[in-house]
Specification:
Chain lengths: 1139, 369
Amino acid sequence: MLRRGLNRLLGGDESRVDSRTVYVGHRPSPTAPAFVPSKFCDNRIVSSKYTVWNFLPKNLFEQFRRIANFYFLIIFLVQVIVDTPTSPVTSGLPLFFVITVTAIKQGYEDWLRHKADNEVNKYPVLVLENGQRTQKESEKIKVGDIVEVLEDKTFPCDLILLKSSRDDDTCFVTTASLDGESNHKTHYTVPDLDSDLVVLNATIECEQPQPDLYKFVGRMHIHKDNQEPAVRSLGPENLLLKGATLKNTRAVYGVAVYTGMETKMALNYQGKSQKRSVVEKSINGFLLVYLCILLSKALVCTTLKYVWQSRPGQDEPWYNQKTLKEKEANVFLKMFTDFLSFMVLFNFIIPVSMYVTVEMQKFLGSFFITWDRDFLDQEIQEGALVNTSDLNEELGQVEYVFTDKTGTLTQNNMEFIECCIDGFQYKYQNLHMEVDGFCVTDGPVSKLQQKAEQEKEELFLRALCLCHTVQVKEAGQGVSSADQVDGLDVTSAMEQRGFIASSPDEVALVKGAMKFGFTFLGLECKSMKIMNRSKKIEAYELLHVLNFDPVRRRMSVIVRSAEGETLLFCKGADSSIFPRVKQEEVDRIRMHVERNATEGYRTLCVAYKQLSNEVFARVDGQLREARLALQDREEKLMAVYNQVEIGMSLIGATAVEDRLQEEAAETMEALQSAGIKVWVLTGDKMETAKSTCYACRLFQRSTELLELTVRTLEEGGRKREERLHELLQDYHRRAVQDAPPLKGGVTRSWSSAAQEYGFIIDGATLSLVLNTSDAISSSHKNLFLQICQNCTAVLCCRMAPLQKAQIVKMVKNSKGSPITLSVGDGANDVSMILEAHVGIGIKGKEGRQAVRNSDYAIPKLKHLKKLLLAHGHLYYVRIAHLVQYFFYKNLCFILPQFLYQFFCGYSQQPLYDAAYLTMYNICFTSMPILAYSLLEQHICIEVLLENATLYRQVAKNAMLRWCPFLCWTILGVFQGLLFFFGVHSLFGNSALQDNGQVFGNWSFGTIVFTVLVFTVTLKLALDTRHWTWINHFVIWGSLAFYVFFSFFWGGIIWPFLKQQRLYFVFANMLSSVSAWLVIILLILLSLLPDILVVVLRKPQGPYAQQKKPAGHSSTGGPQSFSRPLLMRTFSDESENTVL
Amino acid sequence: MASGYSAKEEDGHHSGAPGPAGSAAARSRKPDNTAFKQQRLPAWQPILTAGTVLPAFFIIGLLFIPIGIGLYVTSNNIRELQIDYTGTEPSSPCFECSQNYSWNMTRSCACSVPFSLDQPFESNVFMYYGLSNFYQNHRRYVKSRDDSQLNGNLKSLKDPSKECEPYRMNDGLPIAPCGAIANSLFNDTLELFYNEPNGTKTQIPLLKKGIAWWTDKHVKFRNPTGDNANLTAIFQGTTKPINWQKPVYELDTDAENNGFINEDLIVWMRTAALPTFRKLYRIIEKRGSASPTLPRGNYTLEIIYNYPVRSFEGRKRMILSTISWMGGKNPFLGIAYITVGSICFFLGVVLLIIHHKYGSRSNSADLPH
């Protein structure tokens, strides 16, 4: 998708070319046919959407692209064009308000963007022009310019590093602002370059800009006088990205290859696809219903109007003649305009303000997540982060949680536990150990206290020291404070040495090796230095690093020892190492590996291989060639890697412990009892993952595990597909068919009789299930889904990142489209975070990519509990109530107006004054519901956290389904009817004052409106369970404002109004006792059903509100839930009832 | 080109994520520990339980039933008499008048309707006229007026609002007061005679002041100024509404009740809410405490029949009514209050029974725990 966006960005012409050519320093190459300065975009970053000139039209256009806004615009235009009952102001003013506020907000944001853009674009940079350093504004940089960057400055565009002030042709950068990884990364200059950049004549051929931060392929042709151009391969290690900061290096020179909007940073901030919440879909459904109501109302009125008019003397009585224009109008046209007029009259049933209020609620509500101190992690001093406020309520609807294991369930805080060398187990115990640093514990097979040969031990430890990409943090960078630890011996100073690596496993391994006496000293000039047990320093020349990637699941280094031996060390997951080593060595170690895995450790196998000079030369050539390839470089490299890493000999295995996150088990348990299904998706091995699941109590001892892995598939000795089919059928029978049908509300805590199932599947099998031929696959997929959905927990191990997303997608699109939530911390979780309805990033140790792509980010897994059970639940209840209330209050607002048509000759006469029509949704009734939707806690947060089962009450969009919607609608209709006919009966005799004077139609409307405003506000007051001073203020304040406004509105002869309809109407109304009496009566009567419902159907209320001692509530809770409804209500109440 | 490009992170200075809270989070990583931000504001958590609602039901019941009875009695004590004088039936005295009617008739048609009062009307009596099937609340009608003209604005007097169409100009002259409402001013004249037992007819004096809202009469409706009290001069250059027999400055001889501040006009201009309505016409004041305002006996209602209603099947009534503190006769409020009070009381009883029955039973069931 990004690629498509990219193509669009580049325009058709360039996108057809796969690579771009950059002339370093704009010097034409002698060999190239002609120096054609290609047109690349300049280095201006344009993140702003608007300019001063196009702001108004463009912003308006974008705003009216929203369906709701467009609808209101149409209504407004109809009001302007057609002679309609209400003035255009009534709908124009709210619309204008909304549009203006949005425009101001967007304008402000855009102004900020302009400012930020300018800051970046006008930033002074040093450009090397004809040997001269000239200062330029950043935006003036062109592709091909040679740019100088000083220490602690950010790179102004994507540069190829040409020259560094450091001796070893490297420089250090941090990419904290790009991906959040704060470690220093080493970048290399293009090898073997002339030091004089002024005379450098070179062209760079590189791929077209693409957003992947970690991928770059290019080739540099260096032209020297009359020589064949020398070719150098360029990779990501040569590319300095815009936005990264130079560290520890005085200055670097680089040539700009991508500028402005084509830099990787700019490409990476393409907007994420918009996620929409279920609530929004519900709103749209309700809107459709109301639109139908609106249309049918208008249709009914139009029809009846013409029926009524057909009776003689009704259409045009002598006292009410039409104008000439009206008489001449075409009858069908008139019908149509009548229809439109009715639409306009009733259009308040779909309020503009609802959208505003919902948006405001979401926007303001999301602050409570960021403000929550429970999410504050002391370690990183950060709280939760909200990247989108659109999904707050979705947090209360989650049915499936997909969690990563490493870093999410576990701490990703690795500790070297033990290793196994040549089948013997070594455990590091403490500082007081045997002289050689080893303590041998019993291997299960080998005899006690036996050790491997010294030679093997050292080879293994050297392998650990060499086979990695760890960097040593330089002195003065915090950790190693040698001055302070003066007097301590060398090793302890060494132990304080900081290591930086992309994965914590590597650090743990290097540290582990250090404990055993081999210390990695660092990498200098392509030579790795290690200190061996006898404190001698060994140097190895680093020839190649065969990088780790999740598909190969291993990494290798090729080094040359001081003796001239060429060695390949490889470490990786057992499944990827075992097939590549001599088989006779495997069995001894496999047992250890598996035992360690079941204990929940992460295991890695280490292997090595000696390369003869011929072999190395061949490999070296292949690698270089592959690295130079412009296309399919990855594939080619992979092929070479696979070719080299074969026939190795296994030396040993390591076990690294990854501790569980704080409260991981409690969190998982809470989620499960909240009715959420937890799936663990991990790239880890099955045994390790399984043990983590047990530790997290996702699987319990009684859980029956259904395994669908490569191992179980191969058991039968038949074809995998057949076996798969058979197993799926079997599991399906056990988990789905034989299981008693799950009833809603029955939870595992007290339905212990039912057998629980856990399901385990691995990546290979999953791809077998999902990717085989269509017909079988779909049936398999179905079976698989059904099994999974009936299991309490599912573990998917050995997953590639994309498979994670695949699973999420599969569940997301399954029947009933459940709401999914993915939580993860690493780059490998990004795909599933983006795929799920809600993506949660953990601010973990694996960089910030997950956080950046998530919708919400929390510091620790344990925060998920509060985020879902408390915040999610509350947000859902709040917004659901908000939506229902809005529809309700507008229904009973417009219904009397509709009914009035039957009594005014279907003439579209509005019942309420225009001011009331306009202000109803804006001023009189908007604030209380907004305050409610921000502050309501129908159950207090502590109780929500204590009783995870409460989460089930709102599951499956319970408050926004058609049934509650119908209830609200019925209530609205009931109240609307009551308001109108109540006042209508009163007006049977319109002499309502004690002086015999009569009331007119505006008094009628004002009485109805007063009842209406008070009723809907008090209805909200009845629903409010959590009265803070703000609620009091806005509820009573709104009512007071209504009264005040009415007095004010009716108290003055308004100079610019055509009609003084409401002059003293309100005051006169209040002087009538009958009006008071009818207002009180109607308010009370319309609230009566509500009070009844509240009293009769309030199971959780008293129970939840009473702050019972924790023990009582947890034991009493379930029981009180299982009792019959009515009994429960009253028995629970009776405890605090005086009556 | 860069649509959908979010630039908050663009400056590279903060690594914070976009979104509404991004900036807030960046500003202060550490959230404040205020009650509001932690959603821990002290709150009153009312619980509507049977315990709180039951007394409320009883109180409402006990309060509403007496009020309702009071209202009902009050309404019943109001004397009201309605006389339909439309004259659609041949037997009716106004049959003649209602049949031969045309606006440009020079001679007005008079008819008289006799009636008798069985019981005397003790206090002030209010005389209303009532119209049925007359859509004063029709939109075209309601908006057909110019309030600024009626408020004495000279400019509007000569150039009435467009809303008045088609009753805005006549023969090139602006109509004052313009609009359909004013044009259709009720112009029947009703007079009341008491037939004393000795056969003589005494006219009952009818007050024509105090029938309009005080604010309407004194603020909303004003005659166009011009210091000369001569209304005729002020209204020079305007013409009377088409259906009127006299121009607006001849509505009454009393200067305080003439022109736009004529109370009959003001009352008429307050458009009724429903197609069947009544409007205050005159007040019969009680004179002295000794005799009733209208004693028992026979009366005659003399009508100068000007107002046609047959064309739209309307009806005309004359209503005599006394007034209480709650206004005119209307049993609705009393009945409604009694009903609602009873419902509340009944619900209270039912809930109380449920409460006691089930509350005690499940309590005992709970005891073993």
